[in-house]
Amino acid sequence: MRRLLCLAVLSCTAFAATPAVAETHSRDTDRKVFVIVVGDKGSVLSCRQRSPKPACVALERAGGDPARLPSRTDAVCTMEYNPVRVSALGVWAGRPVRYERTFSNPCQMQAAMGPVSQF
């Protein structure tokens, strides 16, 4: 898990490499990249301006903060204890974002994170 997270951080760093000086400001504020690790699986989510990806739309509405994603109130989840750890590390509109949370089961995670957990 640590190895995967280290690789994820390195790939985020690669995305954050500084472009030419004249373009630095505009690109930094446009950059919206996350490495999301769910359990032992990781994925890179890159959102461009007006991205049609449901995960990008949800994060845009939450201001790039996974903790502010609206939870589904109509989700019916069992009381099963099957913990799922979610980590997200990235850059949203030029500011660094880090998120970590452990959900009691996959259903709870999907209800809380919506399309961000499914991309």
Description:
- It comes from Nonomuraea montanisoli.
- Residues 50-105 form the Subtilisin inhibitor domain.
- Homodimer.
- It is found in: Secreted.
- The protein has helices at residues 2-15, 24-30, 54-61, 106-113; strands spanning 32-38, 41-46, 84-92, 95-103.
- It has a 4-stranded antiparallel beta sheet with strand order 2-1-3-4.
- It is built from 4 helices and 4 strands.
- The protein has one domain: Subtilisin Inhibitor (2-Layer Sandwich), CATH 3.30.350.
- The radius of gyration is 15 Å and the shape is globular.
- The two termini are 20 Å apart.
CATH class categorisation: Alpha Beta
Tell me the series of helices and strands, N- to C-terminal: HHEEHEEH
Overall morphology: globular
Mean pLDDT: 80
Strand % is: 25-35%
Which stretches are low in confidence, meaning pLDDT under 50 for 5 or more residues running?
A: 1-26
Query: What is the assigned CATH homologous superfamily?
Result: Subtilisin inhibitor-like
**What structural category do the secondary elements indicate?**
alpha+beta
Query: How far apart, in Å, are the first and last alpha carbons?
Result: 20 Å
**Helicity, in percent?**
25-40%
Largest sheet report: 4 strands, antiparallel
* CATH domain topology: Subtilisin Inhibitor
What is the strand tally? 4
Instruction: Output the strand order for the largest sheet.
Output: 2-1-3-4
Rg from alpha-carbon coordinates: 15 Å
Q: Tell me the number of helical segments per DSSP (H or I, 4 or more residues long).
A: 4
CATH architecture: 2-Layer Sandwich
